[in-house]
Amino acid sequence: MFLTVQLTGILLIFVGSPLLWGVTQTVKARLQGRRGPSVWQMYRVIAKNWRKETVVPEYSSFLFRLAPSVAMAALVAVLVMIPMSGEAPSSWPHDLLTVFFLLALERFWVGLGGLDSAGTFGGLGASRSSTIGTGVEPALLAAFGVLWKVSGVSNIAPIAIWMKALPGGMFAWTLAAISFALIMLVELGRLPVDNPDTHLELTMIHEATILESSGRLLAMSQMAMTLKFSVVVALGWVVLGPHTSSPWSNLVLLLAELVGTSVALGFAESRFTKLRYFQLPAYLSIAAGIGALGFLVMSGGFSL
After folding, report:
1. pTM score
2. In angstroms, how far is CA 97 from the centroid of its own chain?
3. How far apart are CA 148 and CA 157, in angstroms?
4. Can you give the chain as a three-state secondary structure string?
5. What are the φ and ψ backbone dihedral angles of 20, each rounded to 5 degrees?
6. Taking Cα atoms as reference points, which of 42, 104, 38, 46 lies closest to residue 75?
7. Domain ranges in the chain?
């Protein structure tokens, strides 16, 4: 049962990732008074780029060609590790530290591909992405520190139900959820951290790293971008979100949460403006501090 639910969830999220991206873009456009693209637009963009000729920079190496494949593989591995049914099979790998490593690996290879393009803006994007990445991992550890304190293990598992009966549990859960929500915007490259719609080279971060990509390399990079959107959001909901006793109900609930988050993110992005690059360390410090406070609440057993 669990394996069937898991494989179904993996397939649905992998195939539906461009649709979730399209929902966010469409909602944001409508709230800004624009018609905006269709929710199916990203499928068309990926298919069009896949059919185009792949042209690589003259001075790039095999690393440039390999980067999109490694990034995609890392994200697929994370997707496989997320327990879609709310409980992973006993033999299923689902360690949270491994997830953090794979997300860091994806960011590293995307930056490496941008750096290996031998272009000015590729190097700029890689530098910015790496700098931001050094603050994301500690912030994620702080946000999910509650998980280790409550369960005593590092496996991906729902903690919201366990925390309800603990002193200060719901307050700590709220802090962890807020911390993860802030970090999620960084991982996904969304406003106010980054703007995936911009083509102004001086402000791009992720887009700058794939600026020299074309053809199938660009299509794979865009698919990885949409898949990361689904993977990071699903990870947060599985760990911190509500759960039921039925595996299939948990899968349906997770899919509904993904759609709802896409709509909410589109609404939020229509209200945000991009932060200056040098303000991002303060943003990450706030996210990490909120998560660390939740961990301290659980460690101290405070009754709130």
Report:
1. 0.89
2. 15
3. 10
4. CHHHHHHHHHHHHHHHHHHHHHHHHHHHHHHCCCCCCCCCHHHHHHHHHHHCCCCCCCCCCHHHHHHHHHHHHHHHHHHHHCCCCCCCCCCCCCEHHHHHHHHHHHHHHHHHHHHHCCCHHHHHHHHHHHHHHHHHHHHHHHHCHHHHHHHCCCECCCCHHHHCCCCCHHHHHHHHHHHHHHHHHHHHCCCCCCCCCCCCCCCCCHHHHCCCCCHHHHHHHHHHHHHHHHHHHHHHHHHHCCCCCCHHHHHHHHHHHHHHHHHHHHHHHCCCCCCCHHHHHHHHHHHHHHHHHHHHHHHHCCCC
5. -65, -40
6. 104
7. 2-300
R_g of the chain computed on alpha carbons: 19
Answer whether 173's CB lies under 8 Å from 165's CB. Answer: no
Residue with tokens 């930056």: 111
Phi and psi angles of residue 264, each rounded to the nearest 5 degrees, phi first? -65, -35
Q: What are 57's two structure tokens?
A: 């920079």
Backbone conformation region of residue 118, classed left if phi is above 0, alpha if psi is from -120 to 50, else beta: left
| pLDDT by position in tens, the chain (length 304) | 778 888 899 999 999 999 999 999 899 888 888 888 889 999 999 999 999 998 888 888 889 999 999 999 999 999 998 888 777 665 666 778 888 889 999 999 998 888 888 777 888 888 888 888 888 888 888 888 777 777 666 777 677 666 666 666 788 888 888 999 998 888 887 878 877 776 666 667 777 788 788 899 999 999 999 999 999 999 988 888 888 888 889 899 999 999 999 999 988 888 877 788 788 888 889 988 998 888 888 776 555 5
In 3D space, the residue among 180, 191, 170, 285 whose CA is nearest the CA of residue 233 turns out to be 180
Neighbour count for residue 34 (Cβ, 10 Å): 10
